[in-house]
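Thread amino acids onto this structure.
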């Protein structure tokens, strides 16, 4: 295949995998929400129609960011952070933020609810990419302060899941930026201590951790939620109950169209279908990884790494929570879970990743070879070492 042919196949995969996952998500959003939507709004398609509308908007975002040079984001780094912080403050103001299920996470804009914390993920990736592109990376105190401000505002909503994702993205970017490992490993225990104190400061957060080790903890709360997820996975078996065959969607499983949607997927299409969905994520992450390791400038490398960490951590933590490998913290499954702001931000980041690959004319075969896996980590490590050497 020619070089041009390889690039064409590469772009097609970066475009199509998120769209395929979203189409899967649209079906299962309907499956998981139809009963609740019919009870609340007398319209079984209520949540599906809203998600489909956001999908259309997200496709526009994908197109726009895939066409605009990623280098223009450099000058927008500071404005994005300022806007994000202002929105995170605004959502806490009564009358501006909307309280849903006890949390102030959304700003009502008429037909839509916007979640500022999702925009904060995008802003953090862009800002830290600009930050680490120069010698700013040596200012660890300023890095920690910025992280604490954003994380603190999100925790006030409260939203532990988004906080964890943002902290992990920031730490991942801090690591690949080529910092002194002594500073990095000194930072980890301090953040871990803050995390433990935060988890113990609220009973419901403590219950989420306790249920991870003993499902009988909090049997009427988070324990019930986790148990219903496991029942759905068990119901699915190897091949599932068939499309439309979910039993847990009949108001047994809380929020089956949002954070727990993967449980409904496995219940209907089984272990085989679940592995298929996970394989799509793995393939998508592989393509993003290839973008990162072939970047030629520091800002582009950091931007690609942040996007890779965003999708990697968020996908892993959601799927891990479905199998009791991680606490259930309300982290959505990218492209699939119901949530308009999350879907829009995800597609905008995919657009940036596509633009990164276009700017540097990356030619990658559309299949995953054994050699790619055998040498996969080495380019990433070499890139980090080169960055560290150049910053001295």
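Threaded sequence (392 positions):
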């Amino acid at each position: 295949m020619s070089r041009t042919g390889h690039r064409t196949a590469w772009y097609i995969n970066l475009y199509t995998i998120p769209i395929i996952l979203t189409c899967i998500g649209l079906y299962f959003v309907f499956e998981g929400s139809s009963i609740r939507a019919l009870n609340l709004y007398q319209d079984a398609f209520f949540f599906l129609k809203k998600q489909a509308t956001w999908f259309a908007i997200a496709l526009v975002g994908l197109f726009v960011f895939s066409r605009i040079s990623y280098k223009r984001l450099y000058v927008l780094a500071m404005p994005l952070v300022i806007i994000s912080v202002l929105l995170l403050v605004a959502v806490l103001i009564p009358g501006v933020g909307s309280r849903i299920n006890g949390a102030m996470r959304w700003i009502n804009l008429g037909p839509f609810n916007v979640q500022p914390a999702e925009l904060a993920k995008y802003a953090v990736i862009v800002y830290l990419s600009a930050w680490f592109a120069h010698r700013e990376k040596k200012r660890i105190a300023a890095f920690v302060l910025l992280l604490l401000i954003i994380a603190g505002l999100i925790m006030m909503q409260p939203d532990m899941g988004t906080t964890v994702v943002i902290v992990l993205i920031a730490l991942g970017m801090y690591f690949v930026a080529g910092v002194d490992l002594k500073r990095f490993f000194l930072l980890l225990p301090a953040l871990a201590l803050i995390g433990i104190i935060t988890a113990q400061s609220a009973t419901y957060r403590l219950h989420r951790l306790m249920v991870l080790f003993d499902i009988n903890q909090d049997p009427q709360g988070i324990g019930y939620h986790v148990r219903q997820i496991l029942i759905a996975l068990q119901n699915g078996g190897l091949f599932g109950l068939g499309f439309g065959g979910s039993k847990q969607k009949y108001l047994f499983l809380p929020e089956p169209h949002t954070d727990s949607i993967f449980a409904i997927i496995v219940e209907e299409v089984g272990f085989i279908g679940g592995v298929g969905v996970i394989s799509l994520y793995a393939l998508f992450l592989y393509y993003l990884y290839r973008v990162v390791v072939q970047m030629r400038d520091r800002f582009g490398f950091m931007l690609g790494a942040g996007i890779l960490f965003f999708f990697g951590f968020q996908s892993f933590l959601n799927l891990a929570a479905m199998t009791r490998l991680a606490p259930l913290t309300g982290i959505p499954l990218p492209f699939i879970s119901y949530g308009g702001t999350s879907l829009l931000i995800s597609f905008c980041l995919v657009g940036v990743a596509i633009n990164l690959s276009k700017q540097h004319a990356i030619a990658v075969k559309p299949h995953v070879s054994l050699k790619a896996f055998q040498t996969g980590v080495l380019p990433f490590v070499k890139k980090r070492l080169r960055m560290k050497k150049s910053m001295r």
